[in-house]
Design goal:
2 domains; alpha/beta; 4-stranded antiparallel sheet
Length: 371
Amino acid sequence: MDVVSLTRKLISFNTVNPPGNEGEIARFTGNLLADHGFKVEYQVYSGSRLHMIAEKGIVPGKAPLILSGHFDTVPPGNISWNVDPFAGDVHEGKIWGRGSSDMKGGLAAMATAAIEAFNEKPPSCGVKLIFTADEEPGCPGILQLVSISKEPPEASAIIIGEPTSNLPATGHKGAIYLKARFKGKTAHSSMPEKGINAIYKAARAVVKISEFKFEAERDQLLGYPTINVGKIAGGQNLNSVADHAEFTVDIRTTTKVDHSEILKKLSSKILIDAVIEKMTDLQPVFTSEEDPFVRLVYSICGVEEHDKRFPLALPYLTEGAVLQKFFGGIPIVILGPGEPETAHTANEFCYIDRLTESVRIYKEIILQWQQ
């Protein structure tokens, strides 16, 4: 299967999360790789949801190169699409569909490149592909996978195939996802003085969050930390005092802030009346441009000296935040064919030229990387 056909096939699997349904796509991808001599295993995430791990050419004393990505996608959304989100239509030099950029195009390119690399010659160090379930809500899938790993971690470098338009990024912000719940006391809305309105508690906290100051210096690569309230809910009906309310907080962090200090400040000064649930707590990702792996990737991608676009950092979270720590701080590059601006949007697409280019890039990295 060429990379375009494979991308279209992967798009045809509806892996919208929730619920994910990654079992079928995991087995299809695993069977494809197994047909080309890869050792494939599946790890159960939950129910029929699966992670797929495939490896080939791994020898003692040489840590493998990791190629990583996720099967799940966000929903198509409420805005009407001009194409079927799961058809993988091809026109205007693009493949259209949910996941084309984020990140089934990247998965297809990685699988294709790994197969082609071994068809040319055995790489000096082996390759391991880690394709996961349940990445979109904040990487719980990869966190579960590493938590059940029975083998000591061994890898030499990591490529995360998230959408970057084939521009190598060497870092991204960390993330803290919180849910703040507030309790009140219900009463008839005509007698609000007899109740305690949880929505008012939440609203006062939201205003304070909008004025929150990190008091952090600028990170040279990642910029400044950010905070956002993305979802809020509360109450039970129009004519009652709300006895409950909740909202989510999305914090993107840099190396210049301490996660525990941020949580302490929020809980002691803003979310005083709330029960706080921490859903995600992942540190920023960073690899020096002087690292040999980064230098190799730059060379293959055609990054020239003094290119003002680099070093490139990403504002969004990836599984690299989990994997870099799990594998002991090894070099990591985020590099994929997708278009970041189309991820999570209606009429998502990936340029066909980017897909074919990414196969070449991944394959050359696999063949040229020396541990």
